[in-house]
Amino acid sequence: MPTVTVSFTPLPEHVRTARFIAASVARRAGVADDVLDEIKLAVSEACSLAVRFNLAHAPSSPVELRLIEDPESFSVEVADSVGRGAPDADGELAFDLTTDDDRVDGVDLSGHERLGLAVISGLVDDVKVEYLEAGSVVTMTWPIR
Amino acid sequence: MDLSLSTRAEGEHTVVVVGGEIDVYTAPKLREQLIDLVSAGSYHIIVDMESVEFLDSTGLGVLVGGLKRVRAHDGSLRLVCTQERILKIFRITGLTKVFPIHGSVDEAVAATD
Questions:
Q1: Which of A8, B14, B60, B97 could bridge B42 with an S-S bond, Cβ 3.0-4.6 Å?
Q2: What is the spatial distance between Cα A78 and Cα B107, in angstroms, rounded to a whole number?
């Protein structure tokens, strides 16, 4: 089970790097070319959320990106360090960004989380989100042709 | 590729040509541009996204923010986009019903007349 793990400081500028690494490893693993754009977008959403949460609540903790290749599938795990419950599913999506960034302790990120997860769910058939004491983990899996 | 932005006037409309990637890092630059335009009195904005290579929900948030700002002045914000990979996120989030999306700048200009 070949695995690539990337750990990065929670800064917005690193999200681009994360999605390029994910796409590169996915391509090497044999994921179909037409799925690579979806992987980039899903990884960008998950990493953006992890960066926002860690920046706001655990700025010294890195975001972890794990890329796992199986014979049948390619999985991406994105882990942050902010223990919390799942966002209220009935709440609003945060489309409007009212502040320059989210580097403010106590900022409500649930709207961003609902929007990010809605996009991921729309893109990826096999997605799992775990809310653990140590933080949340988003796992997304794609079949290898 | 980073984000590139340029603006030009087309009659009463301001066309913002966006290129590159719109994500959590670059989206603030686009938001700033839209805020500056509205502050300067441009209330009919066309965002040309044909050269956008990547767009995620942070970018969508900025576009929705821009739409709210121009609507506060009875203005409009129209998008030009024919790229399937970019249109997909608008469909997933239901925003195809919120934004008028056109096939060309000419079409967008004509639609606002």
A1: B14
A2: 41
